[in-house]
Design brief:
200 residues; Arc Repressor Mutant, subunit A; 5 helices
């Protein structure tokens, strides 16, 4: 009887694992379906842009065949994922200001921004890229503008960096803060110089 009770308990555990894997499989299927739809949309957009580019090349050649179509380089469009220019910067600073004097972690700020801007970050690379963008905005707030302070880690086990609102401390800092919110957000590592031309 004891052995039967033990086997019955093991059976229950095994069935729970089966149900858990079924739920995980359904979530994966949903993510895959969404990723496939987004890929199809991106592919269609790429095809349309290619056709437009080819038509422009033909038009330029008809006007003056001596002109190289690629001589203007490439314009990098501002990625308006966050609404108006400076919206992400404004949101992060407002979140820290509202939480003051309590600090917030970079991970928590990224989570809040993801929800606020309704971002669909389906893959780990997408989530990491956005987390890096948040870190870059916070780094500017700390190093250049001085309105946010980066708190030292209190232990080796602390995984997430903490940030706390400090606020402008001088007239120059106030001016820098005002200027900063007008700047476009850039992806981490994006270089506005070189052959690419940043969009105005």
């Amino acid at each position: 009887m004891n052995e039967r009770a033990a086997v019955l308990g093991q059976l229950g555990k095994a069935q729970e694992r089966v149900e858990s894997f079924d739920r995980a499989a359904r979530r994966c299927e949903e993510l895959l379906a969404r990723a496939v739809r987004r890929r199809e949309e991106a592919q269609q957009d790429a095809v349309e842009k290619l056709h437009t580019l080819q038509a422009l090349d033909v038009s330029i050649a008809l006007v003056d065949s001596r002109v190289r179509c690629d001589s203007a380089g490439r314009v990098v469009p501002w990625k308006d994922k966050y609404g108006t220019r400076g919206a992400l910067t404004n949101f992060l600073r407002a979140a820290l200001r509202d939480a003051a004097p309590q600090p917030l972690s970079g991970a928590e700020l990224a989570k809040r921004a993801t929800a606020h801007f309704n971002l669909k970050l389906l893959t780990p690379p997408e989530r990491k890229s956005f987390a890096d963008t948040v870190k870059a905005v916070l780094r500017l707030a700390v190093q250049r503008d001085g309105v946010v302070e980066r708190l030292p880690k209190t232990s080796a086990k602390q995984r997430n960096q903490l940030y706390r609102w400090k606020g402008p401390t001088s007239l120059s800092a106030l001016r820098a803060w005002a200027d900063a919110v007008q700047e476009p957000e850039r992806e981490p590592g994006e270089n506005p110089a070189g052959p690419q031309v940043a969009a105005q």
